[in-house]
Amino acid sequence: MPAGHLAQDGAQRLEVRRLSLPGRRVGRVEVVRRSGGEASWLFVVNHGEQDVELAATGTEQLSGARCDTALRVPAGGVRILRQDPTP
After folding, report:
1. How far apart are CA 25 and CA 21, in angstroms?
2. Element (H, E) at 13
3. What is the distance between the alpha carbons of residues 2 and 47, in angstroms, rounded to a whole number?
4. Could you please report the per-residue DSSP string of 24-83?
5. Where are the chain's structural domains?
6. What torsion do the CA atoms of 11, 15, 44, 48 make, to the nearest 10 degrees?
7. pLDDT in tens, 26-61
């Protein structure tokens, strides 16, 4: 599915590579990546009224849930994803 289109479940799907620059904002979704040491963190703030889904992997830091393919961020929600470097 092309980036920025609505999925069948109503979530908007966005590609992280479109959003991964520091302070990048696409529509009502704000994404910031911070790196240091052995990991990087993806901070996602959804200012919109629809859930969004980003193609990303890692561990969501607020819930501890593992994200294997996509990170879902509810409308008005915040997610912090710890991403380990790829070998």
Report:
1. 9
2. strand 12-15
3. 21
4. EEETTEEEEEEEETTEEEEEEEE-SSS-EEEE--EEETTT--EESSEEEE-TT-EEEEEE
5. 12-83
6. -40
7. 568 888 888 887 888 999 999 988 888 888 899 999
Confidence of residue 64 (pLDDT cuts 50, 70, 90): very high
Order the strands of the 24-26 sheet from edge to edge. 24-26, 29-36, 39-46, 78-83, 58-60, 66-67
What is residue 2's three-state secondary structure? Answer: coil
Q: Amino acid identity, residue 53?
A: E
Identify the CATH number of the domain defined by range 12-83.
2.60.40.1180
Among 32, 33, 43, 34, CA closest to 73: 43
For residue 58, give the amino acid letter.
G
pTM for the whole thing? 0.69
